[in-house]
Design brief:
The chain is built from eleven helices and six strands. Mean pLDDT is 89; it is low at 261-267. It has helices at 13-29, 41-44, 55-66, 79-86, 96-115, 133-138, 140-145, 168-178, 202-211, 213-229, 248-257; strands spanning 3-8, 33-38, 69-73, 120-124, 147-152, 155-160.
Length: 267
């Protein structure tokens, strides 16, 4: 039986810790391992000069540190055209972003693994269930043994969640103990994955506004285009702003207009 450990890494702390744990296990068992990164940025078509960081650059660095190959997967979709047609994705009821930007990519990937001759495929995910009530419900079976068999594109895959029950403190301690390279993005407190807006909390939008104002202004501009060109003519709201009935560009522009504390402080 030909086996493989696929270490899915987003660049976040949880994913690199889970990948490191699984890699050490795979090496002890003599099972080949590789880092897999789903690069969603091309779907957003963001100009590179306004990005505060590029997650792919860090994932490359981490893969080299770990000493394994890197597989980069990219969705073949235009995020903004989908928003104009379907509205912003929401975690519950309208999470089209997962189908368009991940599910199809993963189906293609598992077919590739079948062609490569891998008969036992283990996909390592850096999921910690205590991060939200929804995750506890979704991954209740996986928590029992940290492993969960599933079907992807009709083929069996085993999800492996090495840090399913870990705390954030345990994750930070492991990073220090193993000397895992730090990602510049960690100091921002958010990742590019939240750009899909499916369940992005306002605190993450606020971080983008604070730490990457050029990116925030670009997102406001894209949202204006969405509101003007949306197929059904109705306003499109991200989930976090749905109760306020406020568009994303309205929220960002209002925040950018607010004076900062330093502006009130004299010499």
């Amino acid at each position: 039986m030909k086996k493989v450990y696929d270490l899915f890494v987003s660049g976040g702390k949880d994913s690199v810790v889970a990948a490191t744990i699984a890699y050490e296990e795979a090496r002890q068992k003599g099972i080949p391992a590789r880092v897999v990164f789903i690069n969603e940025l091309p779907a957003f078509k963001i100009p590179e000069d306004i990005l505060p960081f590029n997650p792919l650059e860090y994932v490359r660095k981490f893969s080299e540190w770990l000493g394994v190959d890197l597989v980069v997967l990219e969705p073949k979709v235009d995020y903004w055209e989908n928003v104009k047609r379907r509205g912003y994705p929401h975690v519950i009821g309208n999470r089209w972003c997962f189908d368009a930007m991940k599910r199809e990519v993963l189906r293609e990937f598992v077919l590739r693994e079948v062609r490569e001759g891998y008969t036992k495929r283990t996909w390592i995910l850096g999921i910690r269930v205590n991060e939200s009530t929804l995750r506890k419900k979704l991954w209740v079976e996986a928590v029992k043994s940290n492993r969960l068999p599933t079907l992807i594109g009709g083929y069996r895959v085993e999800y492996y969640l090495p840090i399913a029950t870990w705390t954030e403190q345990q994750v930070d301690r492991f990073i220090e103990e193993r000397g895992i390279p730090r990602n510049e993005a960690w100091k921002f407190g958010w990742s590019m994955e939240c750009l899909c807006m499916a369940g992005t909390p306002l605190r993450d939008i606020d971080r983008i506004i604070a730490y990457a104002p050029k990116l925030a202004m670009w997102l406001a501009q894209k949202d204006r285009e969405v509101q003007t060109e949306k197929r059904d003519g109705r306003p499109a709201y991200i989930l976090a702003l749905l109760p306020k009935k406020m568009t994303l560009h309205e929220y960002i522009e209002r925040k950018l207009r607010q004076p900062k504390l330093t502006e009130y402080m004299g010499p």
